[in-house]
Amino acid sequence: MSGINQHVVYSVTRICSEFCSDLGNEPIKSFGTGFFIKSQDDETIFVTNKHMLDPSLSLGATKGYSLKSIELQLRSKSNLSHTKFIILTSYKIENSRDSDVSVIYDIEIPPDNNYDYISPHVFPISDLADEDFFQNTLKIVDPASFIGFAGTRSSSWWDTGNNLPIARHANIASLPQINFNNPSIKTTEVILVSGFSFQGSSGSPTFSHLKKNNITPENYSTPKIIGIMSGHMIDDQYDEMFNHTGLSYFTKSTALLALLANLTGLKSRSGANK
Question: Which residue segments constitute the domains of the chain, with CATH numbers given?
């Protein structure tokens, strides 16, 4: 039993970013996953990968691409299976300097006369695993799951009828106490898992599973959001269909916590200067 509340599927959200080039290259739309959290300042903030918002990471820095628009697929309050992509009219972005995580805040959802679109659940910041969790609770080979809108360029693998994401199982494949390092991964603060992530999985919340506490066996460590799915390792000797190694990696929640702390500091200093 994972201990993960099955209703979290209604809280995982698709994001669509459109990138435009000032060098004449065709506009590109990129689809991924994200989720909302409630900060310590009681602000609702959207979490996703940095590469979903910074085109230099996914498309290269020489093609002249910049972010043009962001859409979030929100749910109708009256019918959770009914979703609609809403173009954000006002927002701010804070990117991690070295890790593949970003947050969108000061979000204004434009009013819609036909539907009241919402995010059914916002994760509290206390659901994020801290450094102590990685040092003392999470172990190599522990089970984990990530929930998102996985697919390929031509196929959608999630529940398209109810617009619901799917869960994929993984096992922790590197020591959680230290950051995984490999030349093929260009970002920091990652942990490797044995599991298949694909296009669209980017930004999926990654959960640890319910487990017995080693110190007090009668107690259990509850599931935590241990990070967001960020990519997978490939073997270039095979074509695209078969080059997935079965190894994926997520950016640790500690990188997100540091980003949120930095954002709080920025907002505090900005307020002090007014």
Answer: 6-272 (2.40.10.120)
Q: List C-alpha distances in Å: 258 to 102, 207, 267.
A: 11, 19, 14
pTM: predicted TM-score of the whole model, two decimal places: 0.89
CB 209 within 8 A of CB 221: no
Cβ within 8 Å of residue 141, ≥6 positions away: 171, 172, 173
Strands (E), the chain: 12-21, 28-38, 44-48, 65-76, 83-87, 90-95, 102-108, 117-118, 123-124, 143-148, 166-172, 190-194, 205-208, 211-212, 220-221, 225-234, 244-252
The tokens of 255 are what? 């990188």
Give residue-wise pLDDT tens across range 185-217.
888 999 999 887 777 788 999 999 998 766 555
Cα-only R_g, the chain: 19
Tell me if 171 sits within 8 A of 194, measured CB to CB. yes
Dist. CA 67–CA 230, nearest whole Å: 19
Among the listed residues 195, 156, 155, the one whose alpha carbon sits nearest the alpha carbon of residue 174? 195
How many degrees, rounded to 5, is the angle at CA 91 between CA 47 and CA 28?
75
Beta-sheet pairing, 123-124 with 28-38: parallel
Q: Which of 151, 75, 158, 154 is nearest to 119 (CA)?
A: 75
Listed as own residue / partner, the contacts of 175-182 with beta carbons closer than 8 Å and 24 or more positions apart are: 175/140, 176/134, 176/135, 176/138, 176/139, 176/140, 176/142, 177/134, 177/135, 179/252, 180/249, 182/233
Distance CA 45, CA 31 (A): 19
Nearest partner of 250 among 80, 86, 99, judged by Cα: 99
